């Protein structure tokens, strides 16, 4: 059975391959014919950048859990953090090249990891209270849509 450390390195190497694939796609972006083909190509690049960002978030989470699962030296931990930070920097550069501003603000859109998870928020609530919580959560986006319509249309 592979150790957690080896699994992390395997996933990191897959993320590097995906990053290289995206870089190659971006280099070949100008050679794609115009019109819908260009849009499809750019859309594919953006999709892969988003997938890579999610993988990097997963790697970050696994890295924080790694010392508890398996003893690795502090030097090795710092090396892996640097590797991850460098790859994330590359991804952010690619995203900014494609004007993917929403990628950089993803934490603001989705919320941070320090947010209490939904299960802990619902512990001890009865059915009526759960429905009330659902309505409260669902009102947030509706208010944003109403504000958008008021100011932008």
Automatic annotation (TrEMBL):
Gene: SYP52_4
The species this protein was found in: Stylosanthes scabra
SUPFAM superfamilies in the cross-refs: t-snare proteins (SSF47661)
Keywords, alphabetical: Protein transport, Transport
Name the record gives this protein: Syntaxin-52, variant 2
Upper classification of the organism: Eukaryota, Viridiplantae, Streptophyta, Embryophyta, Tracheophyta
């Amino acid at each position: 059975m592979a150790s957690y450390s080896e699994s992390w390195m395997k996933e990191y190497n897959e993320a590097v391959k995906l990053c290289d694939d995206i870089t190659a796609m971006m280099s070949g972006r100008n050679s794609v014919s115009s019109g819908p083909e260009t849009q499809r190509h750019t859309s594919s690049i953006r999709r892969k950048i988003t997938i890579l960002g999610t993988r990097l978030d997963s790697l970050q989470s696994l890295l924080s859990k790694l010392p508890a699962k398996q003893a690795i030296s502090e030097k090795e931990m710092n090396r892996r953090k640097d590797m991850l930070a460098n790859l994330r920097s590359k991804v952010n550069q690619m995203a900014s090249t494609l004007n993917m501003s929403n990628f950089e603000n993803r934490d603001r859109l989705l919320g941070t990891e320090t947010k209490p998870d939904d299960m802990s928020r619902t512990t001890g609530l009865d059915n009526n209270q759960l429905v009330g919580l659902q309505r409260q959560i669902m009102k947030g986006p509706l208010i944003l849509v109403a504000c958008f319509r008021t100011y932008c249309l």
